[in-house]
Amino acid sequence: MKNGIYIAIGLSLLTITASCAKKSFDGAKPAASTTASDASAATAASNGTLPTLIDNRVAEEVLCQDGPKVISAANKDDFSGLFKLICEGNTTTPLFKDLIAKAYKGGEPVPQVYRMDVGDLYITTLGVAYAIKASLPNPSLFAELKPHDIFASGIKEANSELVIKVEGRENFPGKRAVEKVTLNYDLRNANGAGIFDQRRTEFNTYLLVEGNRDITVSTEHLLDAEKNRNYHTARGLTIGVKGEEGQTYFLFVTELVIKNQIDPPRMKQTITELNRGVMKLLYNHINK
Amino acid sequence: MYKDYGLTVTAGLISLSMGFGACKAKKDIVTQEAPQSANSAVLLDYPSLYCEHVGRLKLRTDVSKELNIFCLDGKPTQQLLDFRSKSLSAEPGKIDIVTLEIEQNDEKDSSRFVIAWSFHVPIRPFVVKSRPIYEYIARTYQTETIKFTGNSQKRKDDPLDSGLHLWSVDMNYALEVKGTSGITLNNTRKTQYNLYQVQSGNEEMGFGVEHLVDGINPDFTRSTMLNLSFNDGKGYNDGQGGAVVVTVLQFEVNNQGFPATAKQSVLEIAQYIANGMYEGLKQ
Fold first, then answer.
1. Is the pTM of this model over 0.80?
2. Domain B46-281 belongs to what topology?
């Protein structure tokens, strides 16, 4: 029952990891993107608007026009609901802009639980989102840091603990994905409640524009969903976009529909704690 | 468009000039089963002779899709004549890789490429056939984005299929397309290369056929290369003339959703193969 909470947290973490893992396929070709001047870039980022141009298109436009098409073509799961959270027409939503403007840059992280609905039988829908600002010239470079691997030794934050292990990796699995990573979650402690919960997810990272490494989208979805006792749904999107010179923003949105397992407030607390832990681990890993 | 017309016109002129030789050669084939040496004023019509005979060869695979590009109903296509004339007028060693067809299927993540080129070398087809062409093709080639590795081994215990079948070679290839972050796309394929003499008693025409022999290859559904070589028209079994080598390559590949990268890689490999063959045959 409490496993549900752990899982939810795990997904968020995975999502983050995955998004960071975007790699580009064009080792030799320079990315066709530019960044505005430092001054305007700083202003843009503070407004939550990213300054990057990708093939002469604004990054937000590429994300919102091409993102749903590329991800839908891959046919892994239905991520349209998550895209609606971050995109409105050809531009990004206030939520997206707010997250980018408040992207984590060290200190005490604050993941945003933007949604929590408790239905009949304690079926709980929980949405978590946050962004991290990383000292990386583009999102594809994070892959060299093998971000999924850093969670194998466990995410321990406050009274919660989650271990995520990489079960397998596949390069270029098709449909413009550069990497597929299969992950095993082992949720061991939900805000002080010791539980046993294991689940598998698949994390796929895509280039939205072939040959351009400055914008990536990763998806994560639950494997064997029909057999999972704790979750109806577990989906995540991770957006990686080049920001000001030498900086990249990673934005994570995860939505879980959890079966009746655990007290919803405890669930919310656990997920918040674990995502806080993930933010710190990732940030420190990238910027070490 | 302008360039295309230019090529066509040039090819047409050369075809016209070749026409006189062709009539002579054709007559000789009928009467003597082989053309006599050409005089210095005209070139023997090897394209016609070639296409008349190549379809009669007993091959180990069906390459009609590729062969029809150059020989249709036993006659040379304009494409073959164009490639021939282009090779005869080109600066030595300058090989233009021509993409004849590209098909992308987003639904299936597949790409199909038909690529061709030609060059002229001063050695006769008789000498070309004696060279280890497979070694010129199956080598290691590395750039910033791809690593192409090949090796070859002659099939010693494989009986030849006919008097015109000269040799058979197993080829193994590995291709690694590099990502920027340590992620690479790796694929392998096994092929067999068979070399044939096209017409009995005629030293001046050779036919190389490479085809995929993997039972099921998730990365390649077709990998076929044809090498047509024939005397440049200046000689017949008399040590005269050089060779025109025309190649067509057809790949049907799983592009994994990266059609532009697949295209770039395939064109690089084609250029590498073309250069390798030319270097091996240029003298």
1. no
2. Alpha-D-Glucose-1,6-Bisphosphate; Chain A, domain 4 (3.30.530)
